[in-house]
## 1
Amino acid sequence: MCLYDSDDDVAHCLAAHVAQGRTISELMRRTGLGERTIRRLLGGLDDADKRPNPAQVAKMVTEYRAGLGIRALSMKTGYTYYAIRTALLDADVSLRNPGGNWRDRS
């Protein structure tokens, strides 16, 4: 899947697979790398590589509104909890409290 000489090459290969919709779990099965290793490699990329694109944000909004949590989205997409939270807030999504209750913004 990603056979390269440097960590940077592997990180960009992993990022490309995440952008295609592959999950961290799938990357773990396909590469034999651990979750921490994959997250470390993806975390070393430039900030522009760490932000979801508009199509990915739209998909995250749909999945979040369907009941998927931010942490589950993080595991699925490879983006950090905070990147997803920020993207959802920027998309004017009302966030649920931990445990599934909607926040009362009144």
## 2
Amino acid sequence: MRLSLTVLLVTLALCCYEANAVVCPSFAVDNAAFLWVPDLLYRARLQTYSAPREAVEAKMQVKQCVNGFSTGNKLQIWKALVKILLKCGYEDFQKLLSFVF
């Protein structure tokens, strides 16, 4: 569960930093996809960022760990993420919900 706490703290820091409290929509969608999208589709999503191969592999290794979380634990992370996004003024939740339901 330490990994999920780290992910949430980084999300909070990036989303709600005083100088810029606007949530990047791509960042929000990527976090939702990280929890719910199958590996092959998520890897294809990462390719759109033109990230180095090593970075993609590192993120996929973390995703493999998160894939082992129970659905209940993923939902707890999801709820915390939604609370953070609400606090930061994110509004396009329909796009995020498409990953979960």
